[in-house]
Amino acid sequence: MRFLAMFGVLFGIYMPDATADCWVVTNLSGYGARASDNYDFDKDQITNGVFHVSIYGKDGNVTSVGKSVMAGELLYMSISSNTLIGLYSDERLTMLETWSITHNKKVLYTKVINSIDNKWSASRSMTGDVVGLCEIKLIQYK
């Protein structure tokens, strides 16, 4: 976890303040490779997945909408006004996600999972559609 904290500090130095943006994304499909399939790439998709991808300054978040399934506990941070990275690591599992919104209403998504027992180890690369904008409710602390 110290690595994640240091990573956040380093990116915080280089990330300029930005306005808040939130996009509704869906129709994610592409290719994935899993340990259980000898890392052979095959077609992959997130069926019925709808997500809110939010960027507010140096921070960001990805939330699922409705019945979309998503792994929690990732620490998200923006690396530009339209790109987020999500990080998670513990003694059993490491995850890294990227979400990037293009200027022509597409989302680019990647995910890497490396598990100690290789049960969940996988790599995914997908594209999807930006179908709208969503509202961000920021909490201000005094």
UniProtKB/TrEMBL annotation:
<feature type="signal peptide">
    <location>
        <begin position="1"/>
        <end position="20"/>
    </location>
</feature>
<protein>
    <submittedName>
        <fullName>Uncharacterized protein</fullName>
    </submittedName>
</protein>
<keyword id="KW-0732">Signal</keyword>
